[in-house]
Design brief:
Layout: E1 5-14, E2 18-21, H1 22-28, H2 33-40, E3 44-47, H3 55-70, E4 79-83, H4 94-102, E5 108-112, H5 118-131, E6 138-145, H6 155-158, E7 163-173, E8 178-186, E9 194-196, H7 207-211, E10 217-219, H8 221-242, E11 252-255, H9 260-270, H10 281-284, H11 291-299, E12 308-315, E13 319-326
Parallel strand pairs: 4-5, 4-6, 11-12
Antiparallel strand pairs: 1-7, 2-3, 6-7, 8-13, 9-10, 12-13
Helix pairs in contact: 1-2, 3-4, 8-9
Bound molecules: oxa(dethia)-CoA.
Length: 332
């Protein structure tokens, strides 16, 4: 029997209109544009403004574009998996909200919580439903409204993150294109370095937690940085080795956009020159689960059928992973 792989057959993204520049952040916290750019690579990020708008609204925009590009009806969608740490509600899941808003009446789905690795974990999970032959059209979307959980008095976190969402469509392929291999990992002992202190079942919301500003992102940057540098470089090198790929074989590194310095180390370890590295951190900052599909969306026109892509991630949890994807269509 011919092996079925899960090919990415379309990609789309959405970033909100409002641009929060480094210069504007200088007015909110004691920082400088220069510090932010040299330490992270970020020049600006997008913020979702407007009463009653949440992560689902950005994901819906990306999915509507995806359906339009592929020329298919929402009724054809079997499943929508959403990587996010900023769901619209604690429950029901953002996937349920999105299915309703886009009119995917025949689909089911769920949210997947893996922080910055949410899209990658979703991509690997979603590809299984295609590979088994169970489904024909699975959407994986990564999106976060990080501005909802950022403390704009904390200079160590508010400068890093932005809002945005990206989505891919997975469909069966019999030419060996799509998701070829993956390595995923978690280490929950890393939770102390990057988390949201209150709002979960361990520490439910109270006046005290609000007063103590515990509903925001907490990050101890240095230890996360150290683990991310090693984690992303190791897993990327490992997936190349497992698949006998040399640096010449790899067309693109698609790295999570947390810090340009982490991306540079990863690319160097893989032996890749900077022209093979997707980068948009300067424009969007770290959109958590959104970064990787937003990169694919930005670089789509440059991608060619058969290109070997290494998608690589590291995030809170800790969570990490790499996915080897053979691109399925010419981007132009
Ligand atoms: O995506 C999920 C995974 N997350 C990551 O991968 C993020 C990993 N971490 C990082 O990217 C970096 O650690 C940061 C960008 C968060 C921070 O950069 P750093 O080079 O690690 O800085 P640091 O935390 O070691 O701080 C160095 C100095 C400190 O001052 P002192 O103690 O040396 O006087 C900080 O207080 O920089 C100070 N600092 C700032 N200065 C100006 C911290 N934030 C700022 C700021 N502006 N925004």
């Amino acid at each position: 029997m011919t092996k079925i792989t899960a090919a990415i057959t379309a990609v789309a993204g959405y970033v909100p209109d409002y641009v929060l520049t480094n210069t504007e952040l200088e007015k909110l916290v004691p920082t400088t544009s220069d510090w932010i750019e040299t330490r992270t690579g970020i020049k600006e990020r997008r913020i979702l403004k407007g009463e009653g708008l949440g992560t689902s609204d950005m994901c819906v925009k990306a999915i509507e574009m995806l359906l339009q590009k592929r020329g298919i009806s929402p009724l054809e969608i079997d499943m929508i998996i959403v990587g996010t740490v900023t769901p619209d509600y604690v429950f029901p899941s953002t996937s349920n909200v999105i299915c309703d808003k886009v009119g995917a009446k025949n689909a089911w789905g769920y949210d997947l919580s893996a922080a910055c690795s949410g899209f990658v974990f979703g991509l690997v999970t979603g590809s299984q439903f295609i590979e088994t032959g169970k489904y024909k059209k699975v959407i994986v979307v990564g999106g976060d409204k990080m501005s909802a959980i950022l403390d704009y008095t904390d200079r160590s976190t508010c400068i890093i993150f932005g809002d945005g969402a990206g989505a891919v469509l997975l469909e069966p392929n019999t030419e060996g294109l799509g998701v070829v291999d993956s390595i995923l990992g978690v280490d929950g002992s890393g939770r102390k370095y990057l988390h949201q202190k209150a709002g979960g079942s361990v520490k439910p919301p109270s006046h005290e937690t609000v007063d103590a500003r515990e509903h925001y992102v907490f990050q101890d940057g240095q230890p996360v940085f150290k683990r991310a540098v090693v984690g992303m470089a190791d897993v990327s090198a490992a997936i190349m080795k497992n698949n006998n790929l040399t640096s010449e074989d790899v067309a693109w590194l698609v790295p999570h956009q947390a810090n340009k310095r982490i991306i540079d180390v990863t690319a160097e370890r893989m032996g890749l020159s900077s022209d093979k590295v997707m980068l948009n951190i300067q424009r969007y900052g770290n959109t958590t689960a959104g970064t990787i599909p937003l990169c694919l969306w930005d670089y789509e026109k440059q991608l060619k059928k058969g290109d070997n892509l290494i998608i690589s991630t590291f995030g809170a949890g800790f969570t990490w992973g790499a996915v080897y994807v053979k691109w399925a269509y010419d981007g132009k």
